[in-house]
Amino acid sequence: MLPDLPGLPVRRADPTPLERAVDDGFLIVRAAAVVAVANTVIVRALQERLPFDDDVATTAARDELARLEAEQREGVARLKTLRRRTHRSYGRSRHQFDYRVDDIDALRLREATHKELAARIAQSAADDDFVASLVAAARARAWDDVGSTVVDRLGWAASPLPDYDEGRDERIRTLVDEDIAALLRPEGD
C-alpha cells in the first residue's frame, strides 16, 4: 500500500500492473517536482538574496508539474508511433530498443501508463492542497540542503577538537600569566 500522500488514491492491496506503474511514476514525479521547486527556492535565496515567497514557489510548482505533464504526453505520442511501427516488425530483436510484435502488450502498458500519469499530474496541479504540500516539502528540503551545508562548513566552530580538554589548564594559565599580563604592562616595559 502506498503512503498517504496528496494526489495518490488509496488502492486495494493488489493493484493492477497499470495502477502500480502509475502510482510508482507519480511518486517519482512528485519527488522530481519537490527537488525542482527546492532548487528554485535555494537559487532565489542564495544567488538573488530574496526571501522565501510562497506565491513564487507555488508558481514554480505548477510550472514544473506542467512540464512533467507535457513530458508524459510526449511519451504517449512517442510510444504510439513506436507501437504502430512494431506491428510490422517480426523476428528476433537485435538490441533492447528493437521492439517486435511480441513487445506490443508491454508498449501498450507503457503508453497507458504515460497517459494515466499525465492525467494524474494535471489533476494534481489543479489541486491547491497538493500543490501546497509540494511547496511545503520543497521548502523543507531547501532548508535541509542549505542548513546541512552550513552546519557541515561551520561544524568545526560548533564543537571543539576531541583533545581540547588535554592541556586546557596550562593554556589558560599561559593566557593569564603571559598574554593578559603583557596587555596590562605599560608600553615600553
Number of strands: 0
Helix share, percent: over 70%
Give the mean pLDDT: 85
* Spatial extent as radius of gyration: 29 Å
What multimeric state do the chains show? Answer: single chain
Question: Helix-strand pattern, N to C?
Answer: HHHHH
In DSSP terms (H or I, runs of 4 or more residues), the helix count works out at 5
pLDDT < 50 runs, ≥5 residues = none
Beta-strand share of residues? under 5%
Task: Tally the structural domains.
Answer: 1
**Globular, elongated, flat, extended or rod-shaped: what is the shape?**
elongated
Structural class designation? mainly alpha
Sheet with the most strands, sense and barrel status: none
Gap from first CA to last CA? 81 Å
Q: Can you give a write-up of this model?
A:
The chain has one domain (17-158). Helices cover 70% and strands 0% of the residues. With 189 residues, it is an all-alpha fold.
List keywords for this structure.
189 residues, 0% strand, mainly alpha, 5 helices
